[in-house]
Amino acid sequence: MRITSCRAEDLDPIEEVLPSPSAVSYHLQRYARQVAGTSTFLVARLDDDRPAGVCEVRWNGCAAPEVRAVVADCPEINGLHVVEALQSRGTGSALIRRAERLAAERGRRLVGLGVDDHGNPRAAALYARLGYRPTVRYLDRYSFTDDAGVEHPVEEPAVFLVKELGPHDRS
Hints:
The chain is 28% helix and 35% strand. It has helices spanning 11-17, 26-36, 65-70, 91-105, 121-129; strands at 2-5, 39-45, 51-58, 76-82, 110-115, 133-145, 151-164. The two termini are 17 Å apart.
């Protein structure tokens, strides 16, 4: 498996294996942020170049004011998704480790991510195994657009987890 930054030609194959849950492609939005320079959109690829998973590193950090008040200069790993048939095989861990290396290479001392620890216990357990520690509870606010073009705001209780990066994260 190899992990690279997303390319424009990756968007359709990613959408095929990890369909966006709304009419607006989440992957296209992540790619647009990467092009704008505010994030890095990572793609894990199988040996035959098929996408196995994705995540985004948002260099400006989490948008939630509750999180910014506690860890203002902390990039956020966001949108970690692994193809269901490939879960629990190390793809998510590999994506997170690559994101951590990118953050360390940019001189960042912390990296964080949010999790709904009640609705996603497998993810919470993975993050704990990788050294992420609860830092602040917050409301994850986002919206999605349905197939009829109607935008729906969502608020979900979440916990922002943080990991301190060391020199070993640069290798």
